[in-house]
Amino acid sequence: MAGVQDCLEIKFRLIDGSDIGPKSFPVAASVASLKESILSQWPKEKDNAPRTVKDVKLISGGKILENNKTVGECRSSLCDVPGGITTMHVVVSQPPQEKEMKVKSDPKQQKCVCVIL
């Protein structure tokens, strides 16, 4: 029975409403290791796949979880039911290079041309 309490069943909710998991994680697992698990299990058909752990943010109980914390340390913000599955929301941020490219390309797309007749 003690082994069951040392692990949590966690599923990860993606922005489109689909899920990765649920999968069992020890309470000693770091948030960074959860993110690595997400990267390895990311659905191949999804376009917005994160490239690194830094591209992923995990949110549980309205709080962004820090990489250096363990699941046990974050437990107060986890919305889990005893014996149930904890759901964490996954947010993927774009790498800075892609953001810069979009900002640079936006003014070109928003050019206004006036014609006086």
TrEMBL record:
<dbReference type="InterPro" id="IPR000626">
    <property type="entry name" value="Ubiquitin-like_dom"/>
</dbReference>
<dbReference type="InterPro" id="IPR040015">
    <property type="entry name" value="UBL3-like"/>
</dbReference>
<keyword id="KW-1003">Cell membrane</keyword>
<dbReference type="InterPro" id="IPR029071">
    <property type="entry name" value="Ubiquitin-like_domsf"/>
</dbReference>
<dbReference type="GO" id="GO:0005886">
    <property type="term" value="C:plasma membrane"/>
</dbReference>
<keyword id="KW-0449">Lipoprotein</keyword>
<keyword id="KW-0564">Palmitate</keyword>
<keyword id="KW-0636">Prenylation</keyword>
<dbReference type="Pfam" id="PF13881">
    <property type="entry name" value="Rad60-SLD_2"/>
</dbReference>
<keyword id="KW-0472">Membrane</keyword>
<protein>
    <recommendedName>
        <fullName>Membrane-anchored ubiquitin-fold protein</fullName>
    </recommendedName>
</protein>
<dbReference type="InterPro" id="IPR017000">
    <property type="entry name" value="MUB"/>
</dbReference>
<comment type="function">
    <text>May serve as docking site to facilitate the association of other proteins to the plasma membrane.</text>
</comment>
<feature type="domain" description="Ubiquitin-like">
    <location>
        <begin position="8"/>
        <end position="74"/>
    </location>
</feature>
<dbReference type="InterPro" id="IPR039540">
    <property type="entry name" value="UBL3-like_ubiquitin_dom"/>
</dbReference>
<keyword id="KW-0488">Methylation</keyword>
